[in-house]
Amino acid sequence: MRIPYGGDYNPEQWPEEVWKQDHRLFDAARIDTVTVGVFTWARTQPSADEYDFTTLDRIVERVAAEGRRICLATGTGALPPWLAKAHPEVNRTDFEGRRHRYGQRHNACPSSPVFRQLSTEMARQVARRYAGNPAIIAWHVGNEYGGACYCDLCAAAFRDWLGARYSTLERLNAAWNTTFWSHTFTGWDEIEPPSALTEHWRGPDHTAFQGITLDYLRFMSDAMLANFRDEKAAIREADPTTPVTTNFMGMYRPIDYHRWAAHLDFASWDNYPPDDTSQARMAFTHDLMRGLKDGQPFWLMEQTPSYTASRDVNPLKRPGLMRLWSWQAVAHGADAVLFFQLRASRGACEKYHGAVVGHAGRSDTRVFREVAELGAELEKLGGVTLGARTPAKVAVLFDWDSWWALEISDGPSRLVRYQQVVLAYHRALWDAGADIDVVPVDADLSRYDVVFAPALHMVKGDLAERLEEVAGRGGSVVTTFLSGRVDEDDNAFLTDVPGPLGPLMGIRVDEWDARGPEFVNPVRLDNGPVVDARLLFELVIPQGADVLGTYEADFYTGTPAVTRNAFGQGYGWYVAAGLDEVGVGWVVRQVLDRHNLGGPYPDVPD
Amino acid sequence: MRIPYGGDYNPEQWPEEVWKQDHRLFDAARIDTVTVGVFTWARTQPSADEYDFTTLDRIVERVAAEGRRICLATGTGALPPWLAKAHPEVNRTDFEGRRHRYGQRHNACPSSPVFRQLSTEMARQVARRYAGNPAIIAWHVGNEYGGACYCDLCAAAFRDWLGARYSTLERLNAAWNTTFWSHTFTGWDEIEPPSALTEHWRGPDHTAFQGITLDYLRFMSDAMLANFRDEKAAIREADPTTPVTTNFMGMYRPIDYHRWAAHLDFASWDNYPPDDTSQARMAFTHDLMRGLKDGQPFWLMEQTPSYTASRDVNPLKRPGLMRLWSWQAVAHGADAVLFFQLRASRGACEKYHGAVVGHAGRSDTRVFREVAELGAELEKLGGVTLGARTPAKVAVLFDWDSWWALEISDGPSRLVRYQQVVLAYHRALWDAGADIDVVPVDADLSRYDVVFAPALHMVKGDLAERLEEVAGRGGSVVTTFLSGRVDEDDNAFLTDVPGPLGPLMGIRVDEWDARGPEFVNPVRLDNGPVVDARLLFELVIPQGADVLGTYEADFYTGTPAVTRNAFGQGYGWYVAAGLDEVGVGWVVRQVLDRHNLGGPYPDVPD
Amino acid sequence: MRIPYGGDYNPEQWPEEVWKQDHRLFDAARIDTVTVGVFTWARTQPSADEYDFTTLDRIVERVAAEGRRICLATGTGALPPWLAKAHPEVNRTDFEGRRHRYGQRHNACPSSPVFRQLSTEMARQVARRYAGNPAIIAWHVGNEYGGACYCDLCAAAFRDWLGARYSTLERLNAAWNTTFWSHTFTGWDEIEPPSALTEHWRGPDHTAFQGITLDYLRFMSDAMLANFRDEKAAIREADPTTPVTTNFMGMYRPIDYHRWAAHLDFASWDNYPPDDTSQARMAFTHDLMRGLKDGQPFWLMEQTPSYTASRDVNPLKRPGLMRLWSWQAVAHGADAVLFFQLRASRGACEKYHGAVVGHAGRSDTRVFREVAELGAELEKLGGVTLGARTPAKVAVLFDWDSWWALEISDGPSRLVRYQQVVLAYHRALWDAGADIDVVPVDADLSRYDVVFAPALHMVKGDLAERLEEVAGRGGSVVTTFLSGRVDEDDNAFLTDVPGPLGPLMGIRVDEWDARGPEFVNPVRLDNGPVVDARLLFELVIPQGADVLGTYEADFYTGTPAVTRNAFGQGYGWYVAAGLDEVGVGWVVRQVLDRHNLGGPYPDVPD
Ligand SMILES: [Zn+2]
Ligand SMILES: [Zn+2]
Ligand SMILES: [Zn+2]
User: Fold this and answer.
1) Which residue among A59, A183, A196, C2 is the one 20 to 30 A from C39 at the CA level?
2) Do A525 and A558 sit in the same domain of this protein?
3) pLDDT tens digits for range C471-486
4) Is the pLDDT of residue C433 over 80?
5) Residues A402-440: pLDDT tens digits?
6) Mean pLDDT (chain A, rounded)
7) Can you say which residues of B are annotated as belonging to the binding site?
């Protein structure tokens, strides 16, 4: 057993003589695993009443005969044209209220009974046919779930979802604070999906009612999860054991992967970093993916060997970078290294997307050589890293609800972005060489000495108590501006800011100042540097906390920007402003040093 | 009697124990006036057949019992959900042609018979119930009227409005110059609202037929005025005397407040300046609001004590600024100083909008302290400023028709913006310390020594004669580039530019040059500085006027940029290009000096 | 016979006393030709059953009586309102799927049977009535054909067009590579127009299936061509000889003028350059227009004497520029010099568009004087240039298919724009003083010594062989990055890049690097300068070619950026990166020098 190495393989696009060449090239590159069938629905079900596995049979047989392993897709990642024509309601209605017609992928309404029935049946047919084939090492359901639908079927499903959540309209009206702007709902059918035609202005982040939009985000994530679960259940009818996954997309805002994770047997994700200098970002995403299932390894399901095609500008991965990033994935917990795609398609929107084998079918290219070299290295490594876990003492909390709530909020600042705040702290930890877990807010925190909770806008359940427990037993908890603002319904806490985090932080915030990116307020750190702060500046009134950094400008000069509060045996840290990289680094080092959690190789250049 | 001080108060969002705390805090802050009921429709009419004033009764009773004064809203600022569901046609159809569903506020079609009937009945019910309550000092109809609808009901109402305006299609075709591009209408029902689906491209300012778009702007302003008048009439059935108002939004393009003003008993407006350096702009807007009803005082109906929430970046008002700006309002004619809002709402899009009392309910915050200090100052002032008028000798003309016509015009330049031109001249007058009235083009000009008419694109009725009369008796009239171009139908005058202003200005303009903002043509002023001019450069051929400034660059070097024409006992000034602040200031000082109208404290720093 | 001089004339907008003034002014300006009737449909057919030529008769009679020549329009450039109301399906459905209502111009669905029938009948009526009038020297069909429709009628017509092109769904599925993303079509009616509701994202250039979008572009160009041909055939029923044209718009992407050209008796175009420094661009466009009909002269159908109105900023043409550019047109092959417009319209979106006669009707303006001076010059010239041809030895290929394919492609770079690449090479040739033909890819290349094929993304038919023939007999062929990538269906060639151009170029390209505009890779030219390269960098592996330029930066430092391959008696040149003006100039001079094709006056300042 070795790390699965290979990637997406679509031989149905080619005549069979090409398949022969493919396998010769796979051998040369030590490719032992292929993902097949991702977009085969139109072929495997050419009409409503007909399933036809002729081609898929031949592909699977040939791959197995060549000794390769298979990650077999259910093939429901894109609708076939006949289905969209026969049942127009399976096509999505977009945020602008426009019912789409056939095209693209990610194109099905998740609430459509026809789509749910036919996609489930497709998974059932595939599983029934290929279950037991020893080449199959994983099932791949759908593909990169995402997007959103605003159709009447989804509206009805949303109302059901709300009924289950709130039971009564009284509770719903309270949760959404509908008295504001005369929105009191007196019938469930008065509720509409929040869209450009209803509560929104300017776009998906600008809503009159944050509570409605937040619940729709949760609902839509759940609706697509139901699609995944439908298919998984159908697979399980025929195959009770082979692991089932779907490919995630890292920090992908529309889907709360934490709510999905329990339903996957292992996580997997597609890594398309925006540019050559994304190492820190990728490190974070790998940690996030590893944190989905409590530290369990994940698969790197897709990466390009060379370039993407969908961006305005698609730069080439520099020589050596693909290898470096593949090993980074393994080091962070990846148990598979797979490419999209093994052979470049001839036409349509990915014909210029990088591939292991290009249009000319050559093996004497730089890209193929690098792929083959990595294949040889992984073969040599064998299975030694498979299943390995690396539990850490430092946790970073990541929370889709806080992400959504912060970014759909009107005020204080649209410029404060959740990912940027979290990434800044993770990056500083990474630079310090610390081992880090990225975990959901309901994770078991008892194993951590240090917990970072950047921009933890929403505080749910007993989280505040559990954070207090960390500090109480001698740990350190760090949070920032715009944390502790709202409850699970996105209603403000009726207490001083930072709400339930106040006792742990030992501070109170009455007001705050948002400014454009051109404005800098320097922050003088205690026995440390003077650093820049930007975008948001909370005015902190200590309620017991010590001041470790102060603003140097504006009418609040000299007031606290960074505080530390002794709590039990430990501390609560509060960073009230958007510090620059040096500032965040200083805070992080202070905290790590106390616990001796800096890594052995800090400050290695990227 | 003292200046009403307080603001928007929405206790229906809170349990009654909070109300008690509210009033204690209002006492501490010398708050004596509250606006209640703005968004209560869903509560006061929970279904088609049911009115329920239980909550509003308790609020009004409590406020009155506490000795406070009430500005009572009719509550029609946002539809209740049941109404939108039962009568989908009450929801607006937007510029893109999309019929909306329930959401937001400002969401009713002004032409919908159901909306008109039910909103009027709501006002009638409220007035009937509370008329005679001595605490009520004003009625507040609707809220921040605005937006536009493009539905079929509005199309039909537009055709009726056109029928009343033009009587025959012949006259309509002539007014719209429909022979151009084969647009001759042969039936009233062929006329469509000008939208993204009909005459427009790129957006609301880009139209193929300026005349159609201009008339639709007028119609829509009138349609919403009819909504206001419906409600006012219903109030008057029960209460013949208490003044009725609605809150305006300053320089708000969609509504011609000059056409509305006669129907309000007093004007009021909501002041949300874009940033900390808006003093000059606010001075202008206060003057505009005071000019709506011939110098009669107005109310400052809303301002934030600290920050807004709806902007991308919502900075904090610096300490002292709220006080300074409140006094500025009083000095410019405000007879009330009110905040939005007294207590911050818990949820939805204004939960981070500033409030006198925040989520924690504290009175020991900086913001509350400043509010209380201003309350004490206003209490000490008493009623001494109430009803005061400050007639001026300098008028600035402001004209919605010119604003619309200029900004929907194709050519010469989309970069010339009406507000910027008018503000530049008002600001120079303000810097010079002059007392200024901002008045409509049909105002009585006989009281003014100096009249500024910047960017007076449209010249209607006998305006040219009345301006000539000002100059004839020794006054000064100043106008600028892009003035005197079109008649009331937006058809070009078939004379030399500047049309009917030509004789007074003593010039003729055959051509003009529009340039990007990066291009500067220096203008040498007579015995004055060389200043920058930008965006638009008219080429002036004097027909009797003296040249007081000349271009210094391009092929028209040495030709006139500023002229002054002796006319009767006075002068007509023409500024042919977009001068910078120094240049506009120089012109303004020349004019004021002749009339000794500079103020006693010119050039005070902002 | 002299060069027709005059322009668009719309006297139907004015009372007849103005016509008298018009003709006096035309005489003064030596205007001898007018285009009439372009937007007269509403007047000539005021209702479904009625044609009324009263006004047009008087206009034509008067113009003829004054001794002027007429370019007579069929008048179908904009629908009349009654037609749009009676047959809503004649209004276009836009890319967003919105059926429009009446408004604008360019507003008819080209597939609508009603529009086709009525517009053809309109042309028939006009031709029948005025054929034989000796004043008429040309027929002007429609006006500036363009735009696109996505309605169900167009969908049906598209399917018919596809049926004619592909015969079977098997061939269509292969051409579009539908196996990718499960798009296999099993019924013709499953095919939808590619729009924002189907295959597109972000806009018209971002499509999931390039093949579908490419075919729709071809179809829509053909559909409007059918409209033109309908009208032309109706004219020919009454008038077998007078030439028929329509006014093109230069490099206008939506219409493949090469496919239209055979159906026009002569080409004509409207020249509205973006700014004062467009000489090189206009030179190219004139050459393109002259190349449409194999070098035959064309008409300059429209230009403004002063300014446009539709741009954000509409600068004034400097004195002398209108004259200079008119002579440039004549030198490049124009056989007519016409303005839009002779008299400025009073209202609507072109009231500020420049005109020979302005609103005041003056002849003592600078613009009128310049028009009259040019009129006198052209009168003096007489007919000496009419029909002149200037065959060149240098060809630049221009190809709408390559333009479309390149710009709808996902990857490598959205920043590489076809026009910019082609213009860069043409400009360098123009700077070198060469005579240039701009020709379609199916032109006879046997007459050229040098052929430039910049960004020739698509290589169709026997083009590669014909280019090889040019080099084989001693000529030079130059192509660039992103050439030779796809076949006629937009499917990648299954060979090394640059596909069928590989043997001629003697190179192979395995990979490429796209970068933002801020990144520069210097290219060292052989015995030449070091120049900047930007945006796209192909990595070239010579297969026999000589290296004439190398990259100076990045991991591919020292590898080829410019190559020259000896082929037969001549050469194939390949420029692998986006060189700057100096770099392109160097390549062009190297090539021209070999053939002694530089002009006598190179490097004249613009
Ligand atoms: Zn749906
Ligand atoms: Zn309406
Ligand atoms: Zn159509």
Assistant:
1) C2
2) yes
3) 999 999 999 999 999 9
4) yes
5) 999 999 999 999 999 999 999 999 999 999 999 999 999
6) 97
7) 105, 109, 143, 149, 151, 154
- At residue A500, what is the residue type? P
A278 domain residue, yes or no: yes
Q: Please tell me whether A154 is known to bind a ligand.
A: yes
The pLDDT of residue C86 is above 90 = yes
Q: Angle at CA A554, nearest 5°, toward A551 and A558?
A: 35
pLDDT of amino acid B72: 98
Question: What pLDDT sits at residue C600?
Answer: 77
* Alpha helices, DSSP H, located in A335-442: 366-381, 400-407, 418-431
Is the pLDDT confidence value at C602 over 90?
no
**What are residue A537's DSSP bridge partners?**
A513, A577
Task: Please tell me the distance from the alpha carbon of residue B351 to that of residue B359, in angstroms, as a whole number.
Answer: 9
Q: Are C569 and C443 part of one and the same domain?
A: yes
Per residue in A210-223, pLDDT tens?
999 999 999 999 99
> Which residue ranges of B are tagged as binding site for substrate?
105, 143
Does B302 qualify as catalytic in the annotation? yes
**What SS3 state is found at B427?**
helix
Between strands B136-140 and B244-245, the pairing is parallel
CA proximity to B160, closest of B211, B225, B109, B219 = B219
Cβ neighbours for B467, distance < 8 A, ≥ 6 positions apart: B445, B451, B453, B477, B501, B504, B572
Percent of chain A with pLDDT over 90: 96
Residue scoring higher pLDDT (C106 or A193): A193
Q: Is B334 helix (H, G, I), strand (E, B) or coil?
A: strand
| CATH code, domain carrying B589 | 3.40.50.880
Instruction: Indicate whether B421 and B568 sit together in one domain.
Output: yes
Instruction: Supply the angle between the helices A16-28 and A366-381 in degrees, to the nearest 10.
Output: 60
Compare CB distances from C198 to A103, A311, A316 and report the shortest one's residue.
Answer: A103
**Residue B338 and residue B402 in one domain:** no
Asked whether residue C346 falls in the same domain as residue C411, the answer is: no
Mean of pLDDT values over A296-325: 97
Domain end among B332, B364, B389: B389
Q: What backbone torsions phi and psi does residue C555 show, to the nearest 5 degrees? A: -70, -15
- Domain span at residue A569? 394-595
Same domain, residue pair C444 and C523: yes
* Whether residue C200 has pLDDT greater than 80: yes
So what's the pLDDT on residue C1?
80
The answer to whether residue B217 sits within a structural domain is no
Nearest by Cα to C110 from C82, C148, C141, C166:
C148
Which domain-ending residue is among B339, B365, B389?
B389
Task: Map B185-247 to HEC letters.
Answer: CCCHHHCCCCCCCCCECCCCCCECCHHHHHHHHHHHHHHHHHHHHHHHHHHHHHCCCCCEECE
Q: Two tokens at C335?
A: 């056989």
Ligand nearest to the CA of A149: 1
Q: Please report, in angstroms and rounded to a whole number, the separation of the first and last CA atoms in chain C.
A: 32
- CA of residue B225 to ligand 2 center, whole Å: 14
Of C117, C138, C119, the residue nearest C239 (C-alpha): C138
| Domains of chain A: total | 3
Q: Computed from CA positions of residues A594, A595, A600, A601, in that sequence, does the dihedral angle turn out positive or negative?
A: negative
Instruction: Based on the fold, state whether residues B384 and B445 are members of the same structural domain.
Output: no
> Cα separation of A555 and C472, whole Å?
79
Q: In the predicted model, what is the mean pLDDT of chain B?
A: 97
Residue position matching structure tokens 């499953």: C190
Q: Which chain C residues are closer than 8 Å to B413 by Cβ? A: 312-314
Q: Is residue C168 part of a domain?
A: no
The domain spanning residue B270 has which CATH number? 3.20.20.80
Q: Is A198 in contact with B46 (Cβ distance < 8 A)?
A: no
Measured in whole angstroms, the distance separating CA C372 from the mean position of its chain's CA atoms is: 30
C450 domain residue, yes or no = yes
Residue B499 and residue B405 share a domain: yes
